[in-house]
Amino acid sequence: MAVYTEVDDADLRAFVAGYDIGDLVSAKGIAEGVENSNYLLQTTAGPWILTLYEKRVAPADLPFFMGLMQHCAARGIDCPLPIRDRGGVVIRELAGRPAVIVSFLQGMSPRRVEVGHCEPLGAALAHLHMAVADFPMRRDNALSVAGWRQLVEQSRPRADEVAPGLGDEIAREMDHLEPRWPRDLPAGVIHADLFPNNVFFLGDRLSGLIDFYFACNDVLAYDVAICLNAWCFEPDLSFNATKAIRMIAGYRQRRALGADEIAALPLLARGAAFRFLLTRLYDWLNTPSGALVKKLDPLEYLRKLRFHRSVRSVADYGV
Amino acid sequence: MAVYTEVDDADLRAFVAGYDIGDLVSAKGIAEGVENSNYLLQTTAGPWILTLYEKRVAPADLPFFMGLMQHCAARGIDCPLPIRDRGGVVIRELAGRPAVIVSFLQGMSPRRVEVGHCEPLGAALAHLHMAVADFPMRRDNALSVAGWRQLVEQSRPRADEVAPGLGDEIAREMDHLEPRWPRDLPAGVIHADLFPNNVFFLGDRLSGLIDFYFACNDVLAYDVAICLNAWCFEPDLSFNATKAIRMIAGYRQRRALGADEIAALPLLARGAAFRFLLTRLYDWLNTPSGALVKKLDPLEYLRKLRFHRSVRSVADYGV
Question: Is some CB atom of chain B closer than 8 A to the CB atom of A12?
Fold first, then answer.
């Protein structure tokens, strides 16, 4: 749920007039993209998305994100295409914030993940990894091991408010993962947040990937591990190996997974669960209760983390 | 800010397939209509609005609201037209709630009311009052004098938490208004909530009226008085007589105001300010601080109420 910034209608009309996208006929704030304010614009030429970047997206990162979406869209990835204004500019300003108009993508995010979603998801992820191989820009992953250490230190003192013993458990997990974290696997630009709400389907067809604002350079198989966490658990948090098998099979249709990447999956999945546990825990402890943001339950990821910890080999994922 | 109910995408596709409105290609929760969940649907035939009615709208009132919008739309009022499904049904069910699809209206609500908005607003209000003259259904105004008395009693004990002396002030106001409230003025169906966020403009042209969910039978001039409150004060809460003059002039283009209606305006405006003070006060005292609803400041309407109380004659409104 979002829309933090209200935009004056006259300012908005003037802003849209700077583009060759038809005349503005409507603008609705939409509940999409937790970190930014998003408006669905209707113009005489059709629908478009306007995003105002709130403080969690660093303005210095915007050229990377815009370049990445342009690069991907040009290579056939169904992702939002940033639109240039009449002067060729992509990143403009509206209501005191960086503002971008992107193309509208058809489709809806699945509220319930079905097995049938997982193969197209894996294929789209691999397609993305192949498409960005020649993307020239770079962005470090602020939410990898060094960032986790910081989050552990910030949250540990109050973590037991969320679950007894959680403070010690995250400290132990950190100590386990840090020295073992794989660094020599094939790397590139990853999406890093490809949850169901960031993937659109039209019926069974995957029609779009959105929300590239965590994209960064990291190990490619880590993106697979994030999707294992985000797509392959049931609402009761049991692991669904069929979903994992389909997702990985879909991935392999487009990109081969090396033996080293496969062997690393349990550890990568454990790290991915830990990353979302840590950020949710931090937000849980630090978001004022009156904020218009839905707090996500950190314990969901604690349970996923414990599952990955129990895995004996990659065969437990069905691979 | 709204969207309370999340809808499963498969359920939504099946729901939309029941209508002859094209194939569903997208659905976004929109931040519009405080009381209900609203989705902007895109189909192959264009945009539509899906509303799920939350508990503040009584299901028994829905036939009145739907009939009213159909009646108005048929008489040339730019308002949402409820769409019949393939079986001719308007009020259906989705996600366990009454659900209706209505036509999409172009335009945007003004964030800042300009003088230029007020004449078209008055004209549209009068047009509405004329159009509903032969509407056969009836709905009492639950938020008129009897309802105020109830709200006063519920809020008085804690009203001083909001402003010192407020409890006594609302009790005195109630005692003043109750015996004097005009009942013999021309009556009919009024919108009763025609705030700027419920009126769309495309440039200078008024393009739509929405949110008929407070519409009811009452004195027509009371609707004018509500608009005096909602449109004719500046952000610093000073009264802008120019806006009032234009609004009333616009109204008179379409419907004559009788001498009795004009004479009653100061009292009606006072009552209208009191009504919004009371409901905001009640919500202020009774909404949990974590709720995803923006609480509106009751003191804004206390100040407006005091202004109307200071008015000596209708000439102070510029009439």
Answer: yes
